[in-house]
Write a structure and sequence with these properties.
The complex is a heterodimer of chains A (251) and B (70).
Chain A: E1 2-10, H1 17-23, E2 33-38, E3 41-48, H2 57-73, E4 76-78, E5 84-85, H3 88-97, H4 99-109, E6 112-120, H5 123-130, H6 148-184, E7 191-196, E8 202-211, H7 215-228, E9 233-240, E10 249-250
Antiparallel strand pairs in A: 1-3, 1-4, 1-5, 2-3, 6-8, 6-9, 7-8
Chain B: H1 3-23, E1 27-28, E2 32-35, E3 41-44, H2 53-61, H3 63-69
Antiparallel strand pairs in B: 2-3
The chains are: A alpha+beta (251), B alpha+beta (70).
Chain lengths: 251, 70
């Protein structure tokens, strides 16, 4: 038997509230939740038979559901699925050892929510729109070593050069969209992370941490961006607990 | 709205949930205990990151190891 940790949160301000919330919830294999606290931080855990810990869509979605429910009432740090410790004592020691780091992260995400923004586009259509032409043919007649082999080589180089220029142009376009997104979000005071060209279709994969009360403004900004870029598809997801803005690794 | 679009959005959202739950948050670098559906318990060692259920399925079938080895 082990203790599966769902999240670490700050419950000290209203000690009676967390037990009330947990009493209405069930963990993995229908187990009850309980709290393990150190100072003002609390780990929400439930008993788990290690052998019955199955990772499938249903278990992970249930896990996310518990974190979502807790997130409605508490500032929390989600813990990665499958994190099991042997005993309450071990968990308490872990909280004590990492107290400063956990406090720092809780402070960073307090009153904030995470949003994901994916920008999709038809990259082939986009490339076609840039209309990059191949390099003009070089004059090589009469020079030594300019036979058929050299011509094949030149064709290859020209093709690669054109591909490179096209990729550079796409990347430059992606950078300009990111710049515009960043400028539009100035008023939202978002902390952002951007990943370019996550896949050929997903040209921007961004994450934002914003104050809860800025949610409506973020949605407005994204709608506005969608109107300005009709050839791109903006997909906003959230509000999420701050999964991507937690920086705690515990050994 | 087209039903396909709704389905696709739902799939993407599920992937977003799985990516967060399996990859993000506070990371305990001790043993992570996981089993995959009908498969025996798999103990994933220290600092082994899971990228997706697919990765675990690869682990289960041994593909991951054989790819890593060669």
């Amino acid at each position: 038997m082990g203790k599966m940790i769902y999240s670490i949160l700050k419950a000290a301000e209203d000690p009676g509230h967390l037990p009330a919330v947990l009493s209405g919830m069930r963990g993995i294999s229908n187990a009850d939740f309980h709290e393990v606290s150190y100072d003002d931080i609390t780990a929400v855990v439930c008993d788990v038979q290690k052998a019955s810990l199955v990772t499938d869509r249903s278990a992970t979605m249930d896990y996310a559901g518990v974190i979502d429910s807790l997130f409605k009432d508490f500032t929390l740090l989600p813990v990665r699925f499958g994190s099991v410790m042997e005993s309450e004592g071990e968990i308490r020691n872990m909280l004590e050892r990492n107290h400063i780091e956990i406090q720092k992260n809780l402070l960073k995400v307090e009153g904030k929510v995470e949003f994901g923004l994916k920008v999709f586009c038809d990259t082939e259509k986009l490339k076609a729109g840039f209309n990059i032409k191949p390099e003009p043919e070089a004059k090589s007649a009469g020079k030594p070593g300019t036979g058929q082999n050299n011509s094949v080589y030149m064709d290859y180089v020209k093709k690669k050069l054109a591909e490179y220029r096209l990729e550079e142009t796409v990347l430059s376009y992606v950078n300009s969209v990111i710049k515009e997104i960043t400028e539009c979000l100035t008023g939202v005071e978002a902390t952002g992370k951007f990943k370019k060209m996550a896949s050929p279709a997903n040209i921007i994969d961004a994450l934002f941490l914003i104050k809860k009360e800025m949610t409506a403004e973020l949605i407005r900004v994204v709608k506005d961006l969608q109107t300005r870029y009709p050839d791109l598809n903006f997909m906003l997801t959230g509000p999420w607990p701050p999964y991507n803005f937690v920086d705690v690794t515990i050994s | 709205m087209n039903e396909n679009v709704i389905d696709r959005s739902r799939d993407i959202t599920i992937l977003e949930v799985l990516d967060r739950v399996l990859n993000k948050g506070v990371i305990l670098t001790g043993d992570i205990v996981i089993s995959v559906a009908d498969v025996d318990l798999v103990y994933l060692g220290v600092k082994l990151m899971l990228s997706s259920v697919e990765t675990m399925e690869q682990l289960k079938s041994g593909k991951h190891l054989s790819q890593s080895n060669g």
